[in-house]
Amino acid sequence: MDNQTEKLIVENVLNALMEKGLIESTQISENIIKNASEKVNSSDETCTSCEPVQLDSNTEIMVKNPHNMEALKMMRAATPARILMGRAGARQRTASYLNFLADHAAAQDAVYQDVSDEFLERTNLFKTQTIVENKDGYLQTPERGKKLNEASKKLVLEKCEKGKNVQIIVVDGLSSTSIEANVEDVLPSLMQGLKAEGLSVGTPFFVKYGRVGVQDEIGQLLDCDVVVELVGERPGLITAESMSSYMIYRPSKDTVEADRTVISNIHRGGTPPVEAGAHMATVVKKMIDNKASGVKLSEILK
């Protein structure tokens, strides 16, 4: 919509208000139109310097005059879900709606943004890629996210040693945000824990446009005992930062999903990243000792 059209809309609205007697002075309306036009004309210049909008917290109790406030406080403390947000008539409050839009935007950003090169440099992860060529292809053809392209296979073989006990891979998955939020804390904790367990670890690396199943090909390519995959999970409206760890013992072409051991909900509001890294190391040691993962490992440890 151009500026002239917006000005015309403002004029028509004000004229209608004057006809109904809601605005008495033509001078007032002219001043309003002038101010509105100035704001429209300067919006492109001022928006970049505006302060971020501060939204009400989702953790507050917005119900007016509750019968039992203590019960509501217990409910609020028990879940991060969107409850007790109050209402305006039959609709949700503006603050609740704005929070919803903000969280939805964060979830979309997590999916569509790429893990930054600065992050990979900072964490010393070299980059590989699946046979997927772009984000649309990644979202529309999940199976293609399970295979490395030929250049990446060659790079992995050049930079990584075969036959290690553990190979760690970092995969963007469906949330680049979760990778950048958690890996810098998880990776050192995991590496230290594996070293303490006396296990050899290959050079960690990053996989772009990857799915969980890419660990199967990598495990066979490097002939390692266990592949630990740190992957961004599908973001929700509670958080866009949730990461999971999928671990598998000696994957093959016959691997099924039940063969994977999973630690999920890794983020600052779930399993703390540092704690998750240490726990992974303990689980990996059990997998190697028992030569199993997934459901088979669970049955052995019963």
Keywords for this structure?
alpha/beta, Rossmann fold, 3 domains, 6-stranded mixed sheet, 48% helix, elongated
| Order of strands in the sheet with most strands | 1-3-2-4-5-6
Low-confidence stretches: none
What value does the Rg take, in angstroms? 27 Å
- The portion of residues forming beta strands comes to 5-15%
Helix percentage: 40-55%
What is the succession of H and E elements? HHHHHEHHEHEHEEEHH
Structural category: alpha/beta
Mean pLDDT: 86
Q: In CATH terms, what is the fold-level topology of the largest domain?
A: Rossmann fold
Instruction: Please report the first level of CATH classification, the CATH class of the largest domain.
Output: Alpha Beta
N- and C-termini, Cα separation: 65 Å
**CATH level-four homologous superfamily name of the largest domain:** Ethanolamine ammonia-lyase light chain (EutC)
